[in-house]
């Protein structure tokens, strides 16, 4: 490494506080990889968080990972599959509501959610292989 060491993030944010509408995901379901915001990298004017979701049996009774909410900024929500023979194959299915419309997605994707648009609930309804997930937005911290 070198003079830019402070710009690389290799872990979750210490003492990270989630907004009241979010809850911690049990470690048997997902592993948080990294989180970056202005407190982690001073001067950053955006946030990003990344997780791995592990294969498991999903139930219709599983609570949504994130309930409906909106932000005062744009957001990107992404899920990518890990099938090396078909990179577009999500290896599962994600239910993501945007502006009151339910979307069931089984391919690797990125979704753009404009500021003020209600999105979620979000839940993974099927997962056969690990899925990489990240969200990012221009807010200095996730709200």
What would you note in describing this structure?
This protein is mostly beta strands. The chain has one domain: Jelly Rolls (Sandwich). The protein has strands at residues 30-36, 47-53, 75-80, 89-98, 101-107, 109-113, 119-127, 131-137. The protein has a five-stranded antiparallel beta sheet, with no helix packed on it. A hairpin with a 2-residue loop joins strand 4 and strand 5 (101-107). The chain starts with 29 loop residues before the first strand and ends in a 6-residue tail after the last strand. The model has no long low-confidence stretch (mean pLDDT 86).
What attributes does this structure have?
143 residues, mainly beta, 5-stranded antiparallel sheet, 8 strands, 41% strand
Topology readout:
Elements lengths: L29 E7 L10 E7 L21 E6 L8 E10 L2 E7 L1 E5 L5 E9 L3 E7 L6
Antiparallel strand pairs: 1-2, 2-8, 3-6, 3-8, 4-5, 4-7
């Amino acid at each position: 490494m070198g003079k830019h060491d402070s710009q690389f993030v290799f872990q979750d944010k210490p003492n990270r506080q989630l907004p009241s509408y979010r809850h911690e995901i049990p470690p048997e379901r997902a592993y948080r990889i990294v989180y970056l915001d202005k407190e982690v990298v001073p001067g950053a004017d955006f946030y990003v968080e990344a997780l791995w979701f592990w294969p498991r049996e999903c139930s219709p009774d599983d609570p949504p990972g994130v309930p409906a909410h909106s932000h005062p900024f744009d957001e990107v929500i992404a899920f990518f599959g890990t099938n090396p023979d078909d990179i577009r194959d999500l290896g599962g299915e994600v239910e993501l509501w945007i502006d009151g419309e339910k979307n069931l997605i089984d391919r690797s994707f990125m979704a753009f959610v404009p500021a003020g648009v209600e999105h979620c609930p979000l839940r993974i309804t099927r997962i056969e292989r690990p899925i990489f997930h990240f969200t990012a937005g221009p807010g200095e911290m996730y709200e």
